[in-house]
Queue: 4 jobs
Job 1
Amino acid sequence: MQELPNAVPAPGPRGSSDALLRLIADSVPALMAYYDLPGLRCQFANQGYAAYNGHTTESIIGLTVQEAIGDKAWEAIQPHVERSSRREHVKYAREQTLPNGEARMIEVNLIPHFDADSQQLGSFVLITDITERWRAERTVRQSEERMRKFTEATDEAIVFHRDGIITDGNEALTRLTGYALTEVVGLSIFNFISPEWRAVALDYTRSGREDPYEVTIRHKDGHAIPVEVVGKTMPLHHADYRIVVVRDITARKQAQEREAFIALHDSLTQLPNRHFLMEQLSQVLSLARRRHGRCAALFLNLDHFKTVNDSLGHHAGDQLLCNVAERLRQGVRDADVVARLGGDEFVVVLTDVASPEDAAVVADKLLAAMHGVFTIDKLPLTISPSIGIALYPEHGHSADQLLRCADAAMHHAKESGRGNRQFYDPSMDASALDVLRHERLLREAIATDAFELHYQPQVRLSDGALQGLEALVRWRHPERGLVGPDEFITFSESRGLITPIGRWVMREACRQLKQWQDQGLAMVPVAVNLSAIEFRQRDVAAEIATVLRETGLAPHYLEIELTESVLMHQTGQVLDTLNALKALGVSISIDDFGTGYSSLAYLKRYPIDKLKIDRSFVADTPGNADDVAIVTAIIQMARSLLLKTVAEGVETAEQVGLLTGLGCDLIQGFVVSEPMDASRASDWLRK
């Protein structure tokens, strides 16, 4: 505020002009007063000033500044008053707290008053309440401070621009682009966008869009950075400006690319997977069709790969698969396709072959490469593939058809001794279709419980007393009638169907024996065969406990028959399961004893109750001296280990006499009874 001119007179006697001055002074929103020198006594105050300090316009007259405003306020403003008394125009702001606790901000002007000779007569006081402006400015400062903190704390670059010209940016912008802020201010924001994206960015900005979109920007060193950009228009009085938030999405893009790669490739070998193979094979066939050319599909399966996993572990198996994949890649051209379907199955697509001989040459080359030694965990391994070859257009016109033919040819190579390659021939379809049909019928049998159990008695040699029954499963084939287990059990194991069949057999055998016992019949155990696959893949003990509980059969009336192959895997899991079965009260016997390849040490390691001498050793006794020697050794060994022996397949009185003399405990076979269905077995038990 400007100083009052020296011509302004000091307040004088009241008159009409004084009344007008009073009216004006009391009407303005500012607080006004006049203090003389040297006493600094109040000579004039408007109503606002007097009331603000707790006085009336009359009572404040003659009071000193200190008396008028109070000691505390005087202490705060005394330095300013002294400056004003020394002819200085003083302007300052001061915060005040009202009695109600409200904070207010006032702006104070102390304006010196001079006479015509430039002698200071006093000072005018002009106080203006600037609380609203003060609050607004404080809000702006706080907003700016928050914005500064946000822009410094975030990893997202923030750019301010007007009409595309950069006006400001945060530190994250310099980290993202490599440019100092001084290097970018004043330049067009579009200069930093990759050329192929500039049109998109220009259209986005001109249309005032505020949704996120993706572009690529250039770092100072030249490399491209994928970013997500969101712009927002901030209105001003004369010219709007834009705030742009730029987020580095390099990691997101890499993750998306990785996800896309994983969706189309095998995670272990990094080769194309089945889905990607079918896409590529379809493209190869389409190109060959247009060019009237040829291509070939080679289906490879590693021979005896399971042995590697079983003996060395899956880690070694995975390493071998990766090495095989690399040899396959090296054995074909860059234009050819190598894919892994899963497990130990691979496919090679030869994109351009002149003749079948060309495909054969490549297959032979791959066979030779696979026959070389692989080193897995410092251990040398050799492995061979079986390869099936299918040609376009001779064997198929679609990707599915060509692959199916190559698969059939590969299986023919397996049947032809493994480690060789075979071209597809239409005659191969018959066997493949037979397998599929056999599997379909077996699945239908499982769904409809199209099985039945036959029971063969086991009797004690010493007195002919019944000691047990063996449950033998049969399949009611829709075309061939009742078929034995030899025709479907091994096949069921290979197709993953043995588990539901085994569960049905276990439950039905326990149910039937309990029914006979309730009728006063067959107070002896029933023996149920359990395959190696069932034993390893299921929680056998828990399932058997459930079956016994639900059927009501006492555990000591159930006997589990295992083959020696189960005990070949001398693991803690095998021992734990056998101990759990024994804890239930179930007995355990070894079926087909003597035909396996495992160490006999398991006989003392595992809780076994009984050995069943395989029928192949009994069939030619007593005429075959070698078989007699084997049977004798088995019986003597079992006796020394306190195990019972059961001879299977006993058909003649001579065999009965021999086994009795050797001390065999039990026999079963046609000399006692053939296997009988439940109805005939019930009659046999009654007799």
Note: Confidence is low (pLDDT under 50) at residues 1-14.
Job 2
Amino acid sequence: MPSLRDAVRGRILFGGDYNPEQWPEEVWEDDVRLMKEAGVNSVTLGVFSWARIEPRPGAREFGWLDRLMDLMHSHGIGVVLATPTASPPPWMGARHPETLPRAEDGSIVWYGSRQQFCASSPVYRRYAAALTEDLAARYAGHPALTMWHINNEYCTHCWCDETAAHFRRWLHERYRTLDALNEAWGTAFWSQRYDAWPEILPPRKAQYMKNPAQVLDFKRFTSDALKECYTAERDIVARHTPDIPVTTNFMPLWSGQDAWAWSAEEDVVSVDIYPDPRDAWGGQYNAMIADMTRSQAAGPWMLMEQAAGAVNWRPVNRPKPEGLNRLWSLQAVARGADAVCYFQWRQSRQGSEKFHSGMLGHAGEHGRAFRETRRLGAELAAIGPAVSGAGVSARVAVLHDWDAWWAGAQEGLPSALLDYAEVIRHWHRALWESGTATDFARPDADLGGYAVVVVPHLYLLDDAAIDNLVAYVRGGGRLVCGFFSGVADRDDRIRPGGMDARLRELFGIGILHEWWPLEADEAVECDGFRGTLWSEELEAAEDAEVLATYRDGELAGLPAVLRRGRATYVSTLPEPAALRSLLAGVVREAGVEPVLAGLPEGVEAVRRGELLFLLHHRREMVTVAVPGTYEDLLTGRSVVDRIALGRYGVAVLRSTAP
């Protein structure tokens, strides 16, 4: 099976989306000149080119793309060739309105933007397959082709009649009988029992709350329906080019795709990351998505898109301060990326994204954006041979699961303030700040290689996952679990006792009486820290060790954090310093050391292969102690025992000790 290694070939891929159809051809030669100057070695072509290639049904206009492919090859630039199926041309929506998605209320989502397709539409799928077939046949032997990029940011949802029929087929495959479906969905509640398959619809706009088990299955189905579109196109290009790797780009920590399931279908796992430059913890967010993507890839991964400066879709779109783009790009490499790419090469002058930055901005080749692009390209070329293909080793895993996320996002929960993604971010931040190398894993994965496993919040856990956690602790692992976890089974059915009995026994919870969610501005005092967002009325089992109690309010005197053996349960969200201290203590007990001890605040250390990356996320000058002798691959200078890092500074150190 082809892999990212086949496309990388001992270097870091550097480049991004190139949309030359927006520009007259005389600009193309200038683009290539500047690409070479900047060290660009890879461009993605064709992502939004369906209307250019197929201006009317069945027509094919490949001449312009032929010239581009030849142009790139003649200058030594590889092409990640996209199937342009993310944005059907207007003629499809006009001639085939049944391909357009419908919203929950039945209204049509019209063409005039992008991603206006129903994933269940056989008409859409037929046109997409035909175009992919011709594209793959034409460029299968082209020497510029290094990778296939299928579609773009799969994110459509649809509630139309075609989707309803597809949903019923999916449900029939899952449950086989209506009795099994009715049992799984709990349709005895509110007189929702189904007597015939045609009665079943997607969870459209309803009078009041929808059936949560039906909503959960529809989210599972939607991820699978989109994946069918991806695998159909993937199989076409793989048949023509079995040695060329295939990818599609995830959006970061997005709920619409079960990325664990999708990753298994990709040769290369890629993601688009857009931290907010105004976010004081943007570097931690960048690190978290990198860790998650590396874990999904089980090795090196591809940063398919990021912004060289500002984006255009936030209420206020600030550019990245000088040096921040370089810092976050090298941070991605430190955490396993073998490709650093952007949306897009040349900033657009028209269209909805004309204020979205480019590697070559509106200021042109004399602007700051291009100056920073050129510097980063040279640095990636310098470190590529030493880092490409190397791994990142972690002995701590954070568990993450889409079923749990989907189920925990339903209506009617104890608190609408419980944001799954934000809870994960809080727990990852605590590990990141303590310098702990971290993977992500699914709850049913083999966890035996990890000294510590962390569960920030998994409302839904199926029996296999629970048995896996119990076996992990019995096998010698240390487990730290956050609140409101193990509450529901795979059908979103509340488990007796409000938490699975196996988990209550594991953590030393005698009785879970009530969940006590907190208001946005509310906190609860505990021994040594304050808890936010959530609290729980628990009784500890006789052999449990209470590590912290609630000190005020209704829960005063009851356990907030308790432990039984190597399993710890945290029934609130501790403030950041307290959560960091708690997790750091468990990690130390497990014998896991930080990557580098004694770091100044704001400095991150990551080991990738034989290299030590130092990344400074602040503006003031700091000195970092690094006992030993090293070569800084970014500067070629020798480093002995310490190194100074300036504003957003980075060092990539290789030991020169004998």
Note: The longest strand covers residues 622-632.
Job 3
Amino acid sequence: MSSQTSARRAFDALITERGLAFGGDYNPEQWPREVWHEDVRLMREAGVNFVTVGVFSWATIEPREGAREWAWLDEILDLLHENGIAVDLAAPVASPPPWLGLQHPDVLPVDRDGVRLVAGSRNQFSPASSTYRAYAQAITRDLAERYAQHPAVRMWHVGNEYGQIDHGDEAAREFRFWLRRRHGDIETLNAAWNTAFWSQRYDSFDEILPPRRTPYLINPAQSLDFRRYSSDQLLACYAELRDAIRAAGAAQPITTNFMGFFAHADYHSWADQVDVISDDQYPDPADPQSASGIALVQDLMRSLGGGRSWMLMEQSISAVSWREHNLPKSPQRARRDSLQAVARGADAICYFQWRQARSGAERFHSAMLPHAGTDSDVFRGTCRQGADLKLLSAVAGARVPTDVAILFDWSSWWAGEEPARPTERLSTMQQLNRWYRSLWRRGIAADVVHPDAGLDAYRVILVPHAYILSPEAAASLAGAAAGGAQIVIGPFSGVADEHAAILQGRSPVLLRELIGASAEEWAGMRPGMLRLADGFGPAEPQSADVLAERLRTEGAEVLAAHSGGDLDGIPAITRNGGAWYLGAVVSDGALDAVISGALAAASVSGPIAGVDVLPEGLEAVRRGGVLFLLNHGESPAEVPVTAGLFDLLTGEKTADTVGIAPGEVRALSEALSERH
């Protein structure tokens, strides 16, 4: 059995033993010792059974170079264990102590303007710095050797929100090493980057720098490779500390916290390097689309783990402090956000943080135990969540069934949003969220997968925007279509190869035969109207905007064409058997008609029989034998269900319809209906 398999089983054992994990970041070093016993007493009252300790404790453990002050950590780990609270112990390397940057300025990152940043905040390190990495390994090794066998420690947490980017001299050196490994020799790199353009040819790897400030645009292939390198360099920092923990004899699962669709790390390449996927999620209460947006993130996290359960490592229980204008969550909203994560596969629900900081940069960031103390709606909401999670223990480890895949690739995202495109108004993430909302409104969960992943298990495959598409991915899509899957492809897809070089020929070159259509150019467009084919789409007028392709059909059926202007009569939406193609950014009604048509053709429907589109704001997710209904809207919702289902949260049995008040959640169990 591999160490990773063993570690994953250890996480499953923790959940089996304790039920769904509930807790958050705990920073006892920021408080006097007399507070610790109160903290633990209140944690037990709130149902907390899991805390992360030590994320920002480097300066406390090593206040001066070479020191090791463990007594406080010994004491707090013993105290937590005595009270039945499991610990996710952090290698505290995310925020080096000030003395490290002062004594060794080379550990500090350099921005793209050549300015070396200074200590005094957090994340002030260069991933390329050999000095930083040596000190990080030393403290991590000593921490692991001391606590690998401590009974409180049930998981290890390396770093925190890895995302540092460095453009300094050490980064230049490491970037060159990375380029040698990727391209082999300088002439291969010159060809891949097409350095003949603008006289950028290199005679040696030693001439290459990170993409620093230049008079004008940077070579997009260089920029893309630097982003790949930066993600890989961060992963190397994580992996060497993970390995140090494992070498010290630690058998517990090891993780680090992801950040959703984060722009500086390719989590597809990270996913197999962590034992348990964990994520930090901070949806904006001011965003009316935040419920579907965070559901997409949660589907991504579940997908990164191959469908296994994952951890919500951080969220806020009320307001954050880092937006320009910070709206708080109500306790009801915080509860619903947590239960949404459980519905979509999370087995651990955690917050930043347990006790609200009285000073420092995050003094106004909410916490499970707020400044106001226990006589507060926030703390009462914390206690209610702890009780709810105990009631939902039946879903621990259960999977979320999926028939739909959404293709997403970090390299494609990076390359597809470089400057000097036909339009900078086309956003990969905006399109991804728009397409996903059509699924969300129907209660259809999706796997978010890399384009090169196997697609045979899916009946519908959505490709909102794949600027880079490999021949292997194109062949996989064609194979899935031949096997009966419905494929829906968005505009400006299949444009470039892995080096961001434009594929030659009518586009999308690699998908032309699949879609039965092709385009000769892409262009930003003025808003315009669409003319829909009879029987397709809603009755309301539909439009196109942002970008259009000068498309022609080559056997495909035309479902919508541009109406008026220079594009009059040009196809905008086509269908070729099971392949649907959008040659423009179309309005929500037209997009929904395409996705709805693909779902119907594949006989894919939501979890509630007879309900195609859910009431406004209602989310429906099936996890294992439990149907979750979450009302994110402002009005009551009612849907038909099987009579006699047991609500795990209320203890009630259902009639043949169930009502969900605004902000409320129902968790209806088929498995338990006959026993209650």
Note: The first helix runs from residue 3 to 18.
Job 4
Amino acid sequence: MKKLYTLITCTLLSAGLTFTSCEDQLDQVNPNKQTEDTFWRNEADFELALTSCYTPLKNALGGGYYGTRGVMLRICRADEVEFRNDISEIFQAMNFTNTTSNSLTQGMFYQFYNALYRTNSIIQKLEEKKGEFSEDFINKVKGECLFIRGFYLFQLGKEFKDAPLRMTASQEPSTFPLAKSSQADIWGQAITDLTEAGKLLPVKNDVIGKPTKGAAYATIGKILVYQEKFDEAIDILEPLTKSPYTYKLVNDFSWNFDEAHENNEESIFELLIEQVGGTDIWGNGELANSTQTNTRPREYAAPEVSGWYEANPTQQMMNIFWKEKDKDGNVDIRARESVAWNYPGCMYYLKPFQEVFAADKLNTYWILKYQNSKTMEAESDPPMSSINERAIRYADVILLLAESYLRGSSKKNLDTAIGYLNDIRRRANLNDYSGPKTDEGVFADLEHQRAIEFFVEGERFYDLRRWGLLEERLKTCNEVRYKQFMTGQTGNTNRYYYYPIPAKELETNDLCTPNEGW
């Protein structure tokens, strides 16, 4: 059973993380309302402020990276699922017709800066008041805060490439105009933050949901792989496979996406999704009546089980799932735990697939990851899921190491790369890799394993983009989407590789310029 901790409310947040001013000396101050001067008094205030930094990641409708719409923005552009035309902003992003005014990509952009403001505020206040607290407490707060900031900066550069790098918390209008920094500089700052965080954070955190040393180093390693600094990535990631770390692949793949097995040995960092707070499922997560749950399961469930059927797996993704049978002649267990379809023995929301669907829908495919299909006969109303979002899994570390040994220079080693691939294959009850012992052969299996392992976890688009395979996979998946994607070609890049700097930022920040092609 997960441990719960109370999230900071909007009232406390505004007291601790914004400034107040009063031009009229006759204005009366509410003695019960905390202000900038009265909030940062003790350890509890700093703990509340830290808790507030996670909320922008989980904001359901405003672009929180692991919130309902944020997940959609991360999975809609690849070849693994297709959305129906219900949520216009997601449909636009999927079909590469989105603009600088897309409200959800704008929301994602400002959630990043919302969080950066909060982390910067904490770091600044901690420095101001460091004489009032113990060194242990200062290091604890600083380590957590730097992890959060570095984690956000990684995602900012991943989604928008070049963007303003705001490293101070200020409400002084003169500081608002800020030119973009390069993706390399944003990720460089992320690595700096995460490296310092790794020195300060514990190997195992006693508080569930808080970051650890392993979470910091796993994120650094991923950034290095994105930068194609594979030898450096090995140096950072490989220690995570040894003592004092105790990560391992759990035997049952489905344990990574249910509520009963949260924070297991494979989980390196999770976002807590909890039945605390209020009942407003459409709130921003910070008002008193905002729930801290999300609607993810109901978004993707079929209408036959009270779902909103927003997206379904593509035929191309299903073909990837079906490509290789396991040692017992069955379809890969990861496919069967990720998608429901009409195969012998398939259960969907506690009933046989063929009993749930009419004859004309027996050829349909339905997402299972993060669903309640094993515990409910239908999704609940109101939809308030408490399944934690697994932000970093040990399986990702293993496959990033396989890629690094495959694509590195001085540390390049096909046997070691294959060994890490086999770790993933064995958990899925597959035979060890037996394909060509060449760069091309091993890479083909690496792509295959990542596609299946991280289906709808928000990895596929970014993998294809960095490998230079996005155009090719889109072309074989959906000709219409591919042709529209290619209209974004600009020189040696494509504007649809990244979400655009929002129009609102360009209007209010006169030093910020559009990204290439926009």
Note: DSSP finds 22 helices and 14 strands in the chain.
